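DM between two lab members

TW: hey, do you still have the Extra-cytoplasmic solute receptor family protein 30 entry open?
JB: yeah, one sec
JB: this one, 335 aa:
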Amino acid sequence: MNNPCTHARPMARMATAIGLALALSGAASAVMAEEFPNKPLRMVVGFAPGGGADIVARLVGAKMAESLGQQVVIENRAGATGTIAADNVARSPADGYSLFLGSQSTMVVAPSLFPTLPFKPEKDFAPVSQVVTMPLILVVNPALVNARTVQELTDHIRKSGDGTLSYASSGQGGPQHIAGELYAHKVGTKVTHVPYKGESAAIADVLGGHVPYMFANLPVALPHISSGKLRPLAITSLKRDPKAPQIPTLAESGFKDFEVSTWYGVFAPANTPRPVVDKLSRSIRTALDQGDMQAKLGEQGFTIVGSDSAAFTRFVGAELPRWSVLIRDIGIKPE
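TW: and the structure you got?
JB:
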């Protein structure tokens, strides 16, 4: 007869070994977090300098450096809707020293447009903190389009004929592209999409008279609106923005439930130790709590979020299916 004890002893030893390994792993992570960081960090941005993502990264990175005691180097790797930068960070060591400033264009829209992406946002990244959110603003070059309302621009598009008119965006799959296609879908007329490698290049061509209109990030567009070089028609949030309360929403302008906002958040590679992720998250939220930081981001048109890792993870998980359905319903395809 088999003695149950002969089976119980090895199992007990195995359980003890597993418990010890987990304890050692947890202790190692705690020590790593306590020593972290002991060298400069890098935050990779998937868009060119001067755009909304770059502005946020540089402001947040500078404040993180103060609290962490190490420099946060901003590294711009523009192209492919931010996916080049995202892939670079996804393949980096999971030690907290490589971070990605992601947006919904890269982390929740691109997976629906490009099913063969080399990374999966929900599996290859650890969300650290959602930093800011903001609406887009529909602007026209008044020298090219004499429209003062969304209805006047709509009439102009319809009279121009299918595909004759074009609009600019910071890149395929970004919120500006999605907003442009959603608007064209609701207008019922084809419009030619002109993607650029970053918002700075896109808005430069609108200012230069090469493209008549675009959906721009509010902080990038505001200085050109103030100078009169761009004319604002509407914003893409459901409520008017307190930074520009005189500008109506698309929903008010005859496009019911029209809402496309953009957000930026910090991600680390998957399997980055939880204590390190939490330390990074606290550093970001500490930065966002400072009055001068709030003033600078507010002046740029951003609304501060500053979520912790758990809340940001839930948010991204809810965004993925929402944008997938929207892209499918509009019929957006890779160009």
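TW: got it. The chain has two domains: 39-134+262-330, 135-235. The domain at 135-235 is CATH 3.40.190.10 (D-Maltodextrin-Binding Protein; domain 2).
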